[in-house]
Design goal:
The chain is mainly beta and 324 residues long. The chain has three domains: 135 residues, Roll (Pnp Oxidase, Chain A), CATH 2.30.110; 90 residues, no CATH class; 50 residues, LysM domain (Membrane-bound Lytic Murein Transglycosylase D, Chain A), CATH 3.10.350.10. Strands 2-1-7-8-9-6-3 form a seven-stranded antiparallel β-sheet. A five-stranded antiparallel β-sheet has the order 17-16-15-12-18, with no helix packed on it. Helix 3 packs across helix 4. The protein is rod-shaped. The N and C termini lie far apart (92 Å).
Length: 324
């Protein structure tokens, strides 16, 4: 004998069929030359279907069982509707007992009512059949984690302004010596370029040789392969492109590093034009396209350098003045 319960109430007529589907979530992948492999994962939620329940309308059948006396179909339909609208899980129980009265095995799980369909047919008279689909419900809860963020320790500083002039700073390093304040390089900073290679973009794999020296950061791309775009500020360097973070040494302009502030060149002596050193494989068209976005403007590059180059031939190592 089978007895089926949902939310504590018993189906008056035991369903003729019950389908329990346990869904796996394993994932199969195909490896090159090794065929298929299977990744085992936790099973999915159990689904219960093909649960067709008959609710007699006019009177109780001899095989029907009512815990609290005969009830019409609208009584059970109201309970199903409440389970759907309450948005709460409920308990589904199947008790299996042999004719000899021995308990076989049972089903007892928390479920949600996914859907139900009310069926009426002339062949069933006034009785109502309801097809119900259930799905296993697993309790879950969110966890709250409190993260305590402590402010970083601030180094002690002595700052004295004399007569409204520039403030001098004395910062003590861990070893007891004097340490200059450092900050992350930013656009507009003058830095020491110590590398010998620059790139056409922040992610490019193709680079060109460049001489070290003073340079200005014009663009910053945080997290990129080559995060800093430099333009040389004196004739000792030829860097004009994207460089690695490790290629920048010294504190940028704007910090209290004495070496940089005392060696800063007067604006009047700074070069007025940008230059580029020709690399193997370059032509006027490719250089114009790289620096101004259009190869058709190569004539402007030629006009700026026509005193020492030919419009048809340029050589690796030549230094060109960029007109843009």
């Amino acid at each position: 004998m089978y007895s089926v319960f949902l939310d504590g109430w018993r189906f008056p007529v035991t369903p003729s069929k019950l389908e329990v589907k346990i869904k796996g979530k394993n994932k199969t992948l195909t490896l090159v030359n090794d065929g298929e492999v299977n990744f085992l994962k936790n099973p999915g939620l159990t689904e219960i279907g093909n649960l067709d329940v008959v609710f007699p309308t006019l009177s109780s059948y001899p095989f029907a069982v009512y815990t609290n006396g005969f009830q019409t179909p609208d009584y059970y339909l109201a309970k199903l509707e409440n389970l759907m609208t309450s948005k709460k899980p409920t308990q589904f129980i199947v008790s299996r007992v042999s004719p000899a009265g021995k308990l076989l095995f049972g089903t007892n799980m928390k479920v949600s009512v996914e859907e139900y369909t009310v069926k009426e047919s002339a062949s069933d008279g006034f009785d109502v059949t309801v097809s119900i689909k259930l799905k296993q419900y697993r309790d879950f809860a969110t966890k709250t984690v409190n993260i305590e963020v402590k402010p970083a320790a601030t180094a002690s500083r002595n700052e004295n302004a004399a007569g409204g002039g520039t403030a001098s700073r004395n910062e003590n390093a861990a070893g007891g010596g004097s340490a200059a304040e450092q900050k992350a390089p930013e656009s507009g900073d003058i830095v020491d370029f110590i590398g010998n290679w620059h790139y056409v973009s922040s992610t490019s794999d193709k680079g060109y040789s460049a001489k070290p020296g003073k340079a200005k950061i014009t663009l910053v791309s945080r997290g990129a392969k080559h995060p800093y775009h430099l333009i040389h500020t004196d004739h000792s360097s030829t860097v004009y492109g994207w460089v690695n973070a490790a290629d920048i040494a010294g504190a940028p302009t704007g910090t209290t590093t004495t070496a940089i502030t005392t060696n800063t060149r007067n604006a009047d002596s700074a070069p007025k034009a940008k230059t580029y050193t020709v690399q193997l494989g370059d032509c006027l068209w490719s250089i114009a396209r790289r620096f101004c976005g259009s190869g058709n403007r190569w004539t402007e590059l030629y006009e700026a350098n026509k005193d020492h180059i030919s419009p048809n031939v340029i050589y690796s190592g030549q230094v060109l003045t960029l007109p843009w």
